[in-house]
Amino acid sequence: MTILEQNRLQTINGYRIVRLLDRGEGSEVYLAIREQDQQQVALKILPGRRMGEELTKFYVHAKKLARLRHPHIVHILDFGVEDDFAFLIMDYAPNGTLREKHPRGSVLAPETVNQYVQQIAAAIGYLHEQTLIHRDLKPHNLLVGPRGEVLLGDFGIAVVSHSLDPLYPEQYDFEGTVLYAAPEQLIGRPRRSSDQYSLGVIAYEWLCGECPFTGDFEALVEQHLHKPAPPLRSKNPALSPLIEQVVMKALTKDVEKRFPSIAEFAQALDWATAQVLTQKVRALPRPKRQFKSPRLFP
Ligand code: ADE
Fold first, then answer.
1. How far is the CA of 196 from the centre of ligand 1 (A)?
2. pTM, full prediction
């Protein structure tokens, strides 16, 4: 049963609920209509009831998120609390998530992966400039915008919900998140480059159809902490070693050995992808001459 069904909520602060779009990690996202102008919006209800200090923390964090403006970040339009449940109103992204577009096991062309990484890295770089760390990057949190662009949804919200909801820990889908989590994050010391690691895991999965590590929660944590990720080309030998090198560098356990910033990771991937395309073009058979030179002296 959803939070709304349990609490018989149909309208929240002037937003009429239409249908459930998504749920996970204790939160629920609904398609809703803003009654004042009939505009479609996405309404996210965060898990757990919030009171006192928890409520203040929510307002401080939500205000900060609502100030973010970036072409690859879903805009937060409004936020509030109803019946002690905190909610956020976001732009509605009508084309679903990248997880829906590319189900588990899909292998994408390196150029497509590069295009996605460029957009996500631009959004994350902006968050980093605002002193925020995403900490929950995964294909499920990447929405497809109206023009087919990638939009970061749910940025930082996981931080709000996890820190505010010790009451409902059993509801979180930890495994979904831990697949993409950086080692330092798993021991409670996330930093900017943890987002680079997560984006590296996502790129790895898109390039070969598998995440670097599999297993239950404990097995995943153990591998992120201690086991080097299997080389990408061991899973997709057709892939260029240049692209492999870039992604593996983002997946290094030692944060100092990753790229200095997520922008540099994206630049390196862009360069490697361009090299591969150039090599492919060079390797194409040369077209046969179609015209004979005119006979000047008949
Ligand atoms: N699922 C999660 N957030 C969403 C949004 N803003 N629009 C559409 N679907 C979503």
1. 23
2. 0.85
